[in-house]
Amino acid sequence: MDLLRLVAFDPEDLSVISAHLQDSLLQVGDIAYLPKERRFAIQVRRYDWEAATPQRRLTCMHFENVTGVRVRGIDRSNTDAVLNLLAIAFEEKDAPSGTATLIFAEGGAIQVDLECIEMQMKDTGPVWAAESRPSHEDQLQTAERP
């Protein structure tokens, strides 16, 4: 597969990118908020769901028109800590503005306030074999318990 490059300008576009970024791994140190540039960016090791064999790709993504960022459940001082990105959700507040929420395993989240959705995702290079295919069986079994 060629390098993937996607842009989002509305919630539907963002949901497509979210699906491609599901189960991406990143270190806390790979997160950057640049308030003067009004940009929020991360570098991830994206699991390539479309590949025939399990593999990961180095991928960057960023939001433009950022008005604020809030972090919950993530120790920002531990820059080597690994996070597992589960999804990116969007809640519209006063169209076209709203909040994109990056949801991580273990309950962490980053909320990115946006004037409007303008987000890009791009594979940037290296591809390597993944140890295994991500599974959500443990999460499904926990959700099924009363």
What does this structure look like?
The protein is mainly beta. Helices cover about 15% and strands about 50% of the residues. The protein is built from two helices and ten strands. The longest helix is centred in the N-terminal third of the chain and has 11 residues, at about 10-20. The model is unreliable at about 140-145 (pLDDT under 50). This is DUF2948 family protein.
Measured between the Cα atoms of the first and last residue, the distance is 42 Å
What is the radius of gyration computed over CA atoms, rounded to a whole number of angstroms?
15 Å
Sheet-strand content, in percent, reads over 45%
Shape: globular
Low-confidence stretches: 139-146
Biggest sheet, in brief?
A: 5 strands, antiparallel
Determine the number of helices (DSSP H or I, runs of at least 4 residues): 2
Query: How are the strands of the largest sheet arranged?
Result: 1-10-5-4-3
- Average pLDDT taken over every residue: 91
Q: Give the ordered list of helices and strands.
A: EHEEEEEEEEEH
The proportion of residues forming helix, as a percent range, comes to 10-25%
What class do helices, strands and sheet pairing give?
mainly beta
Tally of DSSP β-strands: 10
InterPro entries: DUF2948 (IPR021335)
Region (Disordered): 126-146
Biased composition (Basic and acidic residues): 133-146
Protein name: DUF2948 family protein
